[in-house]
Design goal:
Length: 152
């Protein structure tokens, strides 16, 4: 990567990130230099291929990220590893899965219809009912999920 400076709008985004990252002027991406682990409620869940778009699967929250994506790593660090988010995703009737779009491009394209990242999808009994685009705070994610949680 070269020392080219990012445009002001990209620089403003980069200034909000706490994960180690750099700007790639060739792609315009903010590239992660670290990979944040997913919480067990997401990482140890069922395979995404078993739940995404499957009738009878109940409420499924799908987190689409990429290891190379700094905003994705920030999303995992700040929102997905938040205690209240983990509690909500651990509720009975809620299942959480992860799609790493660079390792599962066919799944991202065929079941999600996109490789945009970070993106959070909500499926209810196999039907996509909502999308939440971009990196969000834990509070924003909880508010969004709360719209669909039968216990809220």
């Amino acid at each position: 990567m070269t020392d080219a400076q990012p445009p002001a709008e990209i620089r403003a985004w980069m200034d909000r990130l706490t994960v180690d990252h750099e700007y790639d002027p060739e792609t315009g991406f903010i590239v992660a230099k670290e990979v944040v682990s997913l919480p067990a409620v997401i990482a140890a869940g069922q395979e995404a291929t078993e739940l995404i778009g499957m009738p009878g699967s109940g409420l499924v929250v799908v987190f689409a990220t990429a290891d190379r994506c700094a905003p994705c790593q920030q999303y995992k660090k700040s929102a997905l590893n938040d205690k209240a988010v983990i509690e909500m995703l651990s509720r009975p009737g809620v299942r959480a899965v992860h799609v790493e779009v660079d390792r599962q491009p066919e799944l991202a394209a065929s079941r999600l219809g996109s490789k945009a990242i970070p993106l959070t999808y909500l499926f209810d009994d196999g039907v996509r009912v909502a999308e939440l685009r971009g990196q969000r705070s834990a509070d924003e994610l909880l508010d969004w999920l709360g719209q669909f949680d039968p216990e809220s």
